[in-house]
Amino acid sequence: MKSMTGLADRLLRPFEVLMAFAAGLLVLTLMVLGVAEVIGRSFFNKPIYGNLDIVEQLMVPVAAFGIAYCQSKFGNVRMTMLTQNLRGRAKWLVEALSLAIGMFVVFVYLKGSYMNLQRSLQLGGDTPEIGIPLWIGICCVTVSLALLMARLAVQTAEALRLVLVPDDTSEILDLQSHEIAREG
Fold this sequence. Notes:
α1 packs antiparallel against α2 (51-64) and α2 packs parallel to α6. This protein has one domain (2-183). The protein is built from seven helices and no strands. The longest helix has 42 residues, at 2-43. It has 184 residues and is an all-alpha fold. The chain has helices spanning 2-43, 51-64, 67-72, 80-83, 88-123, 135-164, 175-183.
């Protein structure tokens, strides 16, 4: 089981890194666009046509693309106040439970996002000023949530494995090594 979760982790990691990198590039694009808008408006009295539509649509992947990568590094808000005092099976059981709850919540969001994507593809819809299709941003959210769901599934499986073998180490959850370093 350890090798299966390790393999799944190694398969997910490049996609998470790629999406986080893409989010970073989009932030850079937004910054350049903002500077160009200010320069164009201030010095040439020529604002970028559709700037608000562009920014609105770029903010969606900026916000969504890094979520799974952040979860893989445990950068998201977690219940560490509860789990830091637990040891052994109890610790991993609480970790598995909290990850399973997170997975359920993400599943609900993913289902809603997918239904919204289908509706957007069927009915159409675009931004008011320059007509950027709305389904692109919705698709970014759906893909990001699917990747987050996969990450949470791998982490839940790893936590359940550690419930069975509580003294084993984990590269995926890597919580034990952080606690040992903190205690030492």
